[in-house]
Amino acid sequence: MKRTSTRLADGREILYYDTGDGAARAFPDTRPLGARATASTSEVRRDPLLGDSVVIASHRQDRTYHPPADDCPLCPSTEGRAGEIPAPDYEVAVFENRFPSLAGETGRCEVICFTPDHRTSFAQLDEERAALVLAAWTDRTAELSARDGVRQVYCFENRGTEIGVTLAHPHGQIYAFPFVTPRTTRMLATVAAHRTRTGGNLFEEVLAAERADGSRIVLTGEHWTAFVPYAARWPYEVHLYPHQRVPDLPALGDAARAEFPRIYLELLRRFDRLFGRTDPTPYISAWHQAPLGAGREDFALHLELFTVRRTADKLKYLAGTESGMEAYMNDVRPEDAAARLREVATP
Prior knowledge:
By secondary structure, the protein is α+β, with helices and mostly antiparallel strands. The protein contains six helices and 15 strands. It has helices at about 125-145, 180-200, 200-215, 255-275, 320-325, 335-345, and strands spanning about 1-5, 15-20, 45, 55, 90-95, 110-115, 150-160, 170-175, 215-220, 225, 235-240, 285-290, 300-305, 310, 315. The two termini are about 30 Å apart.
């Protein structure tokens, strides 16, 4: 993998990731951009009742919203149309978000573009490109984790207008949080209590139990297992675990790293076949990585993939119980969801 780092017109960093060494990527950004976002544009506040950290970032009201395809800021730049990526072509590109929720001392937000092709999706990438994306996620996790003040790195993809995506180009995001996120905090507490009570690792026991039961297994490889969790919150929700527990992406072994593209692409393609529709299935794909600091040694890297669609023509909305009380009500039995995901395997 070759990595090229350069700067955009307002000083933000952009990195190009390539499978070979021959590509020249250091193209100048000719746009007359204003000042970049700083720590003063976002604020982290603590909820006194829940103890959760909440980011206040009012400047994001002005971010790009559903531009036409011929004016997409994530496509390669052309003569007469300059976007966020100055190069006329790229494989995978990562840059600091122009409208970040976190900036300066409060963290960092990056955009990762999986392909220059506006009309495709992650599921349509080949394994070589998916491996390059994994290498970019790994590189960014390692570098951001080493920065002062960063407590957790979160790589994720939102796809589909139903999710709230405002740019249709295939892309994801990478957040470097200055705090441990509420979801991870709850997991850490549960895992620590289990270790105290039993002496075992809860993540390892969950994976072993799912593999032994088998009814919720979606697919397995030599180094990964994908399953619908026993108490799934979403109608179609899959968790993907490496068999060897590691805290984060940089710690993945070579064999698991090599197998991941095939397993992950198959999962995404099954999601697109779930409902028999021609349009792509909306989803969120989220890497859960260990935070920096206490609890890291017991955490397990895993990926969570779920869709907000529950049938071909119905969406799962977070209603009063979910949004108001975080008490989830699932319309699909996890065992039935797993069976359906097995049915739509690639022939």
